[in-house]
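Q: I'm a student working through a structural biology exercise. My instructor gave each of us a protein and asked us to get a predicted structure, then write a short paragraph describing it. Mine is Peptidase M23. I'm not confident about reading structure output yet, so if you can add a plain explanation after the tokens, that would really help. Here is the sequence I was given:
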Amino acid sequence: MKKIISALRVHGKAHAHRLPGRSVWLLALAVFLTSVTIAAIIPRDNDTPPANALIPSTPPQTVQLGETPISPATASIEGTPADTQTVRETPDREHWTEVTIRKGDTVSDVLNRNGHDSGMIYRLIQSNPEARTFRQLLPGQTLRLRSGTDGTLQELVYETGPGEAFHLVRHDGHFELTKELRTFETRVAHVTGTIESSLFEDGQDAGLSDNMIMKLVEIFGWDIDFALDLRRGDSFSVIHEEKFWRGQKVMDGDILAAEFVNQGRTFRAIAFRDANGYTSYYAPDGASVRRAFLRTPVEFSRISSRFTNSRYHPILKTRRAHKGVDYAAPTGTPVRSTASGRVLSIGWGGGYGKRIVIRHNATYSTVYAHLSRFRDGLRVGSFVDQGQTIGYVGATGLASGPHLHYEFQVNGVHRNPLTFKFAGGGKIAPQNRDEFARLAGDWSARLDVIGHGTRVAASRQAGNPL
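A: Happy to help. First, here is the predicted structure for Peptidase M23. I'll explain a few features afterward.
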């Protein structure tokens, strides 16, 4: 602006002898209008908050849940001189601190560690039933603290999930408790990739998050043993939701449709949400992708010993039958039940070390041995869901290294879990068939398009071991 005015002044002096009185007034008017116009078009602050700033709702969808008055004694910070000059608080001078919750943490612990008095917050949490969320902090989640220019706590935010947060805000001599609900914008994205080294590495390179990769394993884990069956040149295509908040991605949503080409075989899964909002996955013909048993009890492990009638035992130094499959994995790796059932026995099993036997029905039972420890609270008679963690990989009993020994029994007879043919998991409900057929047609057409390139690459490299 100063340069424009200066230029106009120079211009005016150079040609003053040619400007009559009216022209001088017109020039002055032009300068005034130019300054007004430039002021109007100067860009305002960007609506996008800084990377580390707390992102509020716009407008905030909040529900006031309660308040508590702040006494003058508790409103001051211990150690602050009484005669310290109070500085007027402005939003740009306030300070946000983000704290990751540790195991066993309470709100008082977090506040005390960060130099804040916790007394009044503690009284509010104990006296207001709506504040019970603050009594059960979950490790790994975050608390955000906003301090004023004088260091006093102005706001405490507990984000219980990507779309939900609880606020304790200082306002007019008391703290108000509100719950904030965010409505995300949902977008649909797709990712394709080819297996070169491992699903995790190649999935990440293609743009899949770890959580999305695990979802993909859960969907296709009924047909593909990701520890045994993967080959270089296998390919995957995923159509999924992404959740956005004010233009920024905050989380992944559900997988809507997916394809996995494994050793030349193509598997597809289409998501369907029922009337209760529960999402299940089906093949395009309406058959459930779920099976009675998972293919493997340990995700992303490797097979160190297979089912055989004669194997040299590394500890006993003799040949004997090996009536199960060994999955080598680091100590502490979670072990999951391959099907729902009840714990038949749990404890020490001689050469098996720490062992769990699960009875799934009158026909099937499974054995999990050499565990380092059991899941807390698990006992004889406990019911476990399919895929639920029941213990952790170890090397107890007659084991030369950390691994899981897994047995599969049919009517008391040991069978090879890698080759046993399991029945399917049923079909989609009759009342949903027409709607699902429409969805399956739409998503299958999109998978045909986005997966074409990866399928061509897969056909060239199919069968190559990793």
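A: Here are two points you could use in your paragraph. Residues 1-26, 31-92 have pLDDT under 50 and may be disordered. The two ends are 65 Å apart (CA to CA). It's a good idea to check both against the output above yourself.
Q: Great, thank you!
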